[in-house]
Write a structure and sequence with these properties.
CATH superfamily: HUPs
Structural class: alpha/beta
CATH class: Alpha Beta
Shape: globular
Largest sheet: 5 strands, parallel
Strand content: 15-25%
Mean pLDDT: 87
CATH topology: Rossmann fold
Number of helices: 5
Number of domains: 1
CATH architecture: 3-Layer(aba) Sandwich
Radius of gyration: 15 Å
Low-confidence stretches: none
Distance between the termini: 22 Å
Order of helices and strands: EHEHEHEHHE
Number of strands: 5
Length: 140
């Protein structure tokens, strides 16, 4: 039924649960599995271009380690995991990548790293489920 599955991955407990569910679904459906890490906290204003570059390198390194750990977990289960790293607003970027990549299922953890702000603004999972062009599985 599903051929391309996208997992939104930020290293949180919710994202780890979504990754495990994605690995299982990829096995069952013999589907392509991809994990997406969104670099949300890049500096918007800084004193110098060097500061921006330094922050970008730190974000690349941090998200790269997260995605490598996810890839290793999938590999242990016998699944190849492709990875994508993009800067941007999490919900908007997840929806955009899913649409452009023609994914037919998106998995996202119920809770992530948004913390207290989610109570006021809504969670990333809620926003993604409202705007996605494919099926969304919110994993608890």
């Amino acid at each position: 039924m599903y051929k391309k599955i996208l997992v939104a991955y930020d290293g949180s407990d919710g994202a780890n649960k979504a990754l495990k569910a994605g690995i299982n679904l990829a096995k069952v459906h013999q589907a392509e599995l991809c994990a997406l890490a969104v670099q949300e906290k890049l500096p918007r204003f800084s004193g110098t271009i060097d500061e921006v570059q330094e922050e970008k390198e730190f974000a690349d390194q941090h998200h790269g380690k997260l995605l490598e750990a996810a890839r290793a977990q999938a590999q242990e289960a016998g699944i190849e995991l492709k990875t994508i790293m993009c800067p941007g607003h999490p919900a908007k970027t997840i929806v955009q990548v899913a649409k452009e990549g023609k994914f037919d299922l998106m998995l996202i953890g119920h809770t992530g790293l948004s913390g207290v702000w989610a109570a006021f603004l809504g969670t990333t999972a809620e926003k993604v489920s409202r705007h996605a062009s494919c099926s969304v599985l919110i994993v608890r």
